[in-house]
Input
Amino acid sequence: MTVSLLTQLADALRSGAVKVVDLTQPLGPDTPVIDLPPIFAASPGFSSEEISHYDDRGPAWYWNTIRLGEHTGTHFDAPVHWVTGAQLPENTLDTIPASKLVGPACVIDCSREAAANADFLLTSDFVQAWEAEHGRIQPGSWLLMRTDWSKRTDRDAFLNMREDGSHTPGFAPECVRFLAFERQVLGVGVECVGTDAGQAATFDPPFPAHNIMQGSGRFGLASLANLDQLPPTGAIVVAAPLKIVNGSGSPMRVLALVG
Ligand code: MN
Output
């Protein structure tokens, strides 16, 4: 008798042969949000207000109202988030096919480079050196950039703002083009507050990870955690944002299956 793939998976989950790794940061009032120059509208962080807490307002139930920007904490960037993706089909959270919310992950470890240089940029040469060791990135894979930035639990250290803006690692523009058009990745995921490097406003094009990824119908995952628990290849990532009508992004629980 052949055992189906999913039955094997269920057995492996039960035995612990396949583990579920939580790639999500806690979401609360202390969750850092991106600091934009004051000429731009700011995104509110997370806040909540009780509706009732087993009291007069609801004797047997506890629940809250939450308020937050779509791009708060561990979250998803949909193509419509960037002006370059504004006219693409299936570019909003409610129209992205569910099949695109599950995919294999290629995890590139840049933690040493990011520790030595907060402005470290991933290049296509670095990616190809990784491929020489781990194999070619297959179309439809997430490219996850491990920097260990999520271990910076202090807000100031995480955002790393200086007078000239934020200093956090990210992608060189040519690398984003390489990943989008020569490797057809599903999207890129990072541990920082956004997919672009802290200094990416000065790049050509500005904010290349957003400009090129979203502009080619690809996705972004920001503020990921626990990437150090993933193998370079072989993990399956489930990154399913809320199905907000016309949504540009949403906080979410990102999970990885690791065998
Ligand atoms: Mn975002």
Observations:
- The first helix runs from residue 5 to 15.
- The pocket of manganese (II) ion is lined by residues 71, 75, 77, 194, 220, 222, 249 (CB under 6 Å).
- The first strand starts at residue 19 and ends at 22.
- The chain is about 20% helix and 25% strand.
